[in-house]
Amino acid sequence: MGRKWNNIKEKKASKDANTSRIYAKFGVEIYVAAKQGDPNPESNQALKMVLERAKTYNVPRTIIDRAIEKAKGGADENYTELRYEGFGPNGSMVIVDALTNNVNRTASDVRAAFGKNGGNMGVSGSVAYMFDATAVFGLEGKTADEVLEILMEADVDVRDILDEDENVIIYAEPDQFHSVQEALKNAGITEFTIAELTMLPQNEITLTGDAKAKFEKMIDALEDLDDVQQVYHNVDLSE
Question: Do the beta carbons of residue 61 and residue 191 sit within 8 Å?
Fold first, then answer.
């Protein structure tokens, strides 16, 4: 799992370096979650999860409040959740999750980002089967053994717990996200370096030279799209 954590860390570092764009994306995601359910996160688990993620990216309270108030005000903007799958150089695989109010625009933009950078879009299911939906938490100030004891006492099952780069990384089934979060918070752990629902590749590959450069350019092009919320792939970019 260590390499997977490296990829998550690299991805988060990249997002931290593009704060204004990330804040805008979170604004849309928070609005959609609040509009689809109760705008109170205590009774809306989807919204609560988005807000927990937003906290790890230091999204300002003003952006969060604005998005929730917009949903409360009955704004009529409607967004569709989309997932695209595709391929990059040398067997690399990519999943793109988007929230859009214009499906045709988003499909065209995603296709162009793939095609202009040596990739191509695949059909639904062509890539996703090689990834596992996973809840991932990262925290500091504890050891893996201490965290394992906390979760065991709360009767919460997880896939793995590892010490990585002064962080404890927890991998769990997606439906255990809230159970893990609550168990840790009940034990006094309220700050996380990462709190995500992600797609982890079952196997990672390494690219070098032109293939790596093309792939990184393709990922940047996809993440730069306003409608794209998340990009997952099977390439180890930590080296």
Answer: no
Rounded Cα–Cα distance for residues 191 and 194 (Å) = 9
Q: What is the DSSP annotation of 171-190? A: EE-GGGHHHHHHHHHHTT--
Tokens (6 digits) for 179: 């159970």
pLDDT by residue for the chain (239 residues), tens only, comes to 445 666 666 666 655 556 888 899 999 999 999 998 888 888 999 999 999 999 988 899 999 999 999 988 877 888 999 999 999 999 899 999 999 999 999 999 999 999 999 999 999 999 999 999 999 999 999 999 999 999 999 999 999 999 887 889 999 999 999 999 999 999 999 999 999 999 999 999 999 999 999 999 999 999 999 999 999 999 988 76
Tell me if 85 sits within 8 A of 123, measured CB to CB. Answer: yes
CA distance 169 to 208: 28
The burial class, CB within 10 Å (0-12 / 13-18 / 19+), for 6 is middle
Amino acid at 56: T
> Is residue 166 classed exposed, middle or buried when 0-12, 13-18 and 19+ CB atoms within 10 A define those classes?
exposed
Q: Are 116 and 109 in contact (CB under 8 A)?
A: no
